[in-house]
Design goal:
The complex is a heterodimer of chains A (170) and B (97). By secondary structure, chain A is an all-alpha fold. In chain A, 76% of the residues lie in helices and 0% in strands. Chain A has a single domain, classed as Four Helix Bundle (Hemerythrin (Met), subunit A). Chain A is built from six helices and no strands. Chain B is an all-alpha fold and 97 residues long. Chain B is built from three helices and no strands. Chain B is elongated. The chains are: A mainly alpha (170), B mainly alpha (97).
Chain lengths: 170, 97
């Protein structure tokens, strides 16, 4: 967070995240909601890039923006007629949602700001140049990530088979 | 500093998950919440423990698991739609068709 360009980019990403996530849950058209979700995910990838987590940002773009949003759009195309609006919310439901969301944000926000006053001038430590081959070595060596990695591969296989079994035509 | 957009994103996810009736819209809200949590992992890793990379690995695994979960959920939603012809949670009241 040193140069002025970094600060400007931070505000761009933060503003994009806030605006598009609010729009994504309040818009009436479901396809627009998925599109706003795409923008939120791309801004998140930008934040990862800003924090020097290049691999994480690339994964975010490839998996979320490239995979999940396309999956959402496919599902919306399959299950909705084009140009169909969702029903208007009942006020009871909206009040319930606003209460839950407001309470949660309030509690977390108070905690966040009281914490921020203490650690106002925390400096971002210099990056230790964590390259992708170092990341891959860490992922597959005895650093404790090998078991989750293998469990994840089994989970993905089970998920592929499960999705095909659930969604195939009988 | 990065926690503020992540907090608002999580709040939006909670709001959407409670108010939306469409199952796909609820899933989109769920993705928002998961994404906010991923940002928090990376931010805490970067600012509090910059020497280690545990938070980044957690985010990586969380992204992969979120992808798997979304694929299965969308398969279930499409199957429900094929049987019941609707995706609103108010109209799907029978567990067995």
């Amino acid at each position: 967070m040193d140069s002025i360009g970094n600060v400007i980019m931070y505000f761009v990403f933060a503003l994009a995240i806030i605006v598009f996530s609010v729009l994504s849950v309040t818009t009436k058209k479901i396809l627009r909601s998925a599109t706003y979700l795409l923008f939120v995910l791309l801004a998140t990838a930008g934040i990862y890039f800003q924090m020097d987590y290049e691999f994480l940002g690339a994964t975010q773009i490839a998996v979320y923006a490239g995979g999940i949003v396309v999956l959402f759009v496919f599902a919306i195309m399959l299950t909705h007629k084009p140009g169909e609006d969702s029903d208007a919310l009942t006020s009871h439901r909206r009040a319930m949602g606003l209460t839950a969301c407001g309470l949660g944000v309030l509690v977390c926000g108070v905690a966040l700001f009281s914490f921020m006053k203490i650690k106002e001038a925390v400096e971002l430590a210099t990056t230790d140049n964590y390259t992708i081959d170092k990341l891959g070595t860490d992922l597959l060596s005895n650093k404790g990530y090998l078991l989750p990695f293998e469990a994840l591969s089994v989970l993905l296989l089970a998920c592929i088979i499960g999705a095909i079994v659930i969604a195939r035509k009988r | 500093m990065y926690l503020i957009p992540s907090l608002i994103m999580f709040g939006c996810g909670v709001y959407g998950f409670i108010t939306r009736k469409n199952m796909i819209a609820m899933l989109i809200s769920l993705e928002l919440m998961l994404n906010a949590v991923d940002i928090n992992f990376a931010v805490f890793n970067r600012y509090l423990f910059p020497a280690g990379h545990e938070g980044m690995f957690f985010s990586l695994f969380a992204i992969a698991i979120a992808a798997a979960e979304t694929a299965v959920a969308i398969a279930i939603i499409i199957n429900v739609y094929r049987v019941a012809k609707k995706v609103d949670i108010n109209q799907i009241t029978k567990m067995k068709f």
